[in-house]
Write a structure and sequence with these properties.
Order of helices and strands: EEEHHEHHHEEEHEEHE
Number of domains: 1
Shape: globular
Number of helices: 7
CATH class: Alpha Beta
Organism: Pseudomonas rhizosphaerae
Protein name: DUF429 domain-containing protein
Number of strands: 10
Radius of gyration: 18 Å
Distance between the termini: 40 Å
Oligomer: single chain
Amino acid sequence: MIEPNASTLFMGWDVGGWNCDRNPASRDALVVLDAERRLVGKPWRGNLRRTINEASSTEQFVHGLLKLCGIDSAAHQAPRLLMGIDTPLGFSKPFIDLITCGVTVPTVGESSTNPYLHRRTEHFLFERGLYPLSPIKDMIGSQATKGMHVLGRFAPIREACGVWTDGQMLRAIEAYPSACKRSASIEALRAPFYLNGASMPGLEHIDAQDALTCALVAWAFEHRPHLLARPTADIDPVEGWIFVPEDGLRAVGPLD
């Protein structure tokens, strides 16, 4: 496990598709904050595919990300990066069993309870008034495989359910900006980045705004962990977990 320290940087990654350079509306976006939640470098938006492909180690990957944001790695001694990533970072265990072993579930009901389409972490959010997307049916498979590819190459160790690391300089969790829209705690953390309703330079695009939210979730994961919902006992670690603010969830009740 990587111990937190003052040199930890918090990066939000709003994930675009593998070929998002062809999609002007939605691309990869990065935002980096320090331990005091100050913006470090500048927000970046584009396609990370080349940076991913050209890195042969976690260190090269991290330094490549920081370089895109105009951050001199040498200015941060042994920089450690905690990433909040906005894309599904796993598939459901029933779906994995279906495609790898042909094992089926007894019955399939509505979309929100379909064990092939959604992980338990997503069922958890459905039950609390949120509507997460499915990498199987909602055309975000490109983004999901991109995020999981990065974990497999640069943060392959499962430190805990929903937490991946290389054991030295990179940790990653899954974030969900839409779940933060009705969270007073996250909105309070976002407020300094908006003056009189206008965002700071570099945060004008929704991709960058979502990356900022992911960075704040990553910061909260380390500095205010009580704000975030934690994995329940029935979660299979292979599925991962979406870290969302507790105050953005409604009490458990019937699905809408």
